[in-house]
Amino acid sequence: MVLDLSGAADEVVKRYALDQLPLDRRTRTSADLLRLDGKLALVTGGGGDGLGAAICERLAEQGADIAVLDVSETAAATTVTSLAERWNLRAEQLLADVADREQVGTAVDGLLERKGRIDILVNNAGGSGSIGLDGGKPKQHGPFDQMEIEDLLTVVRVNLVGLLMVTRLVLPHMLARGSGRIINVASEGGKTAIPDLSVYNACKAGVIGFTRSLAADVGSRGVTVAGVCPGIMVSDRTLRSLSDPAGRGFTSLDTAFSRVTLGRCTVVDEVAGVIAFLASEAGSFVHGTSVSLGGGMAD
Predict the structure, then answer these.
(1) Helix locations, the chain, DSSP H
(2) Distance of CA 153 to CAs 14, 73, 133, 135, Å?
(3) Are 126 and 185 contacting, i.e. CB atoms less than 8 angstroms apart?
């Protein structure tokens, strides 16, 4: 049954924005609502073989054009090549440090000049594989009082400042067009205490708070904002790091896993699939919240 607004008073329609309801949804299939044909998605940290690459793959599967932004030219090229081979898609490769205003500004401005629009922004850069300006990975597991200041600043710079920076430079374009979707990758660590990850968890709690606040600011202007909170994701990169007990905090991992009531970890594609849903019309009313994807870790 199609909703009929003809009997509703004009005052009621205006007061509750009933004229903005997607009344055509009933006539469309679920598969159609998931499609992203004609959309351009910018994915930060989209290079390599982790979550970013999986996000690019799922968005491309649904028909979106992809711009892969990464601090590593090699990693970005890997994803672009994979997209071309699997989906026959000519993806763009953008090189930038997400926390560098000049680099991100140049990348975003150039993309807009070539494509004319950015419909979807996925702020994925960061995580346990964060890379500093020198190309090295900061040590972020361990007691806060023993954390090197340089590592602390790098974790904050990549996991929080970078997300704010990219959003700040993309958002005005979306607002000018009156439409856009922003999806922020946070973490279950931003919702629950995990030992030896104080700075990383604080950053992800900040992402969750930013998602909520930005959604309140821009939702009425046509831009939806949502977040996802992955738990323990297993990728080739994870397996490599787990082979070096000295390089990763097993205290953090053991504590986190003990809270996973589903009894297993997740793979990056399970998270990427939810992000593709949130980017589509099927997930258009998910706004201001950060969805837990931790198998019960924070619930």
Answers:
(1) 10-15, 30-34, 51-61, 73-87, 101-115, 149-156, 162-177, 198-218, 236-242, 250-258, 268-279
(2) 48, 23, 11, 14
(3) yes
User: Domain 28-293, what architecture?
Assistant: 3-Layer(aba) Sandwich (3.40)
Residue 173: phi and psi, rounded to 5, are -65, -45
Are residues 225 and 182 in contact, defined by beta-carbon separation less than 8 angstroms? yes
Report d(CA 104, CA 294) in Å as an integer: 31
Are 55 and 273 within 8 A, CB to CB? no
> CA separation (Å) from 13 to 7, 113, 203?
10, 39, 41
| Cβ contact 207:269 at 8 Å | no
Tokens representing 206?
């900040």
| DSSP-H helix ranges across 178-263 | 198-218, 236-242, 250-258
pLDDT per 10-residue tile (average), the chain, 299 residues: 81 89 89 96 94 96 97 95 92 95 97 97 82 65 90 94 98 98 97 92 97 98 97 81 64 85 94 98 97 93
Coil/strand/helix, residue 134: coil
> From residue 232, how far is each of 130, 239, 286 by CA, in Å?
16, 12, 23
Active site residue 16: no
The residue assigned the tokens 């990427």 is 272
Of 119, 141, 200, 223, the active-site residue reads 200
